[in-house]
Amino acid sequence: MYGIGDNLFTLPAYHVVREAYPEATLTFLVAKQNAQIYQGFPGLDQVLTIDRQVYHGASYKQMLSETLKLITTVRRGKYQLVIDFTSSGETALLALVSRAMERWGMIKRKRSRVRSFYYTRVYKATEHIHNADKYVELVKKGGLKPLGIKNQFQVPHEYIEKAGSLLEEFGIAPKRPLLFIQPFTSDPNKDWPLEKQIQVAEYHRKRGIQVLFGGAPDERRRLREVEARFPVAAGKADLLTTAGLMKLSTVVLGGDTGPLHMAVALGKRVVMFMGPTSPVRYGPYQRLSWALTPDEGTDTRRIALETVIKAIDERFTEAQGDEDGIDNI
Known about the structure:
This protein has helices spanning about 5-10, 10-20, 60-75, 90-95, 130-140, 155-170, 195-205, 225, 240-245, 260-265, 280, 305-320, and strands spanning about 25-30, 45-50, 80-85, 100-105, 120-125, 180, 210-215, 250-255, 270-275, 290. The protein is of the alpha/beta class. The two termini are about 25 Å apart.
C-alpha cells in the first residue's frame, strides 16, 4: 500500500483483529515512508518497515540482500496468522514463506486466482464496496465476528502538543471555530481550484471563523499567495502534527487525500471533494454524505463555490458546541 489513505483504510479491520485477539502481539509490515501513520493505530505492538526505494534503481545484489533480510525477519517472528491486506504477488509469496499456519488474503482479479493457493482463507473482493470494507470482509472471511465497526485514529499526545504550539505561533485561538483546509492531493485531477479555496477562506473569515491551510512540505511554494493572507502549516508540520492540527480544528476541507481520511478517522467533520475517484469506494468512510461530487461528470473543478460554502456551514452547524468533533460509528 503506497498512499496514506490506502493504509488508513485498514484501520477498521485492524480494530476487529485487535478486539478478537486482545492478548496477541500485532505487527504491521509497511512501506518505510508510511510507518509514522501506524503510531495512530491504538494498541498496535510493532511496525516492521520495508524500504521500497531499494527496489527502484538499486543493484540486483542489494535487492536480493534486502529481500533475504525481510524473509529472515518475518520468519523469526514465528507468526501464527498473517493477514495480507495488500494481496499482491509479492506479499502473497511473503505470506507463504512466513510459515504461518493461517494466511488470509484477497483475490482482486480473475488472473490473480493462482494466489489463492498461497492462503488458507480467501476473500474474493468486489468492486462495489468501500475499500475499508474490503479489509473488514477479509478478516470476517477468516472467521472473526466484529461486534461493531470502528474507524478510530489516535494522535499521540506529543503531536497534539506540537500542533497546539503551531496554533499559538499562528495566533489562532484554541476555543474559537477553526476551518482547516488541505488544498492539494497527490493527483491534480482530484483538486478543487486553489483560487476557489481562497474565496471559501475569505468568506468564512469575514464571519468570524479562523482559517488554517495545511499541505505537504514541498507544497509550500504553491501556497505563497495564500500565505500572504492566511497562516500556512505546510513545511512546518509533519503528517502526525498535521493530524494534531486537524484534531484541534472544527471542520476540515479538502480532496480525496490521506489527511482527509485521517480527519474522518479522528472524528472530525469533513467536506471532501470527490472526483474522478468513486465516493462509494474511496469516500469518507461511513460518512458518504460528506463527499461533494460534480452535478455532472467527475471533474471536481465543476463543483460550485456556493455548494462548498453550504456544505461547510452545515458541518459547522453540526459541530456547534462540540469541540472534539463527533464519535465514530
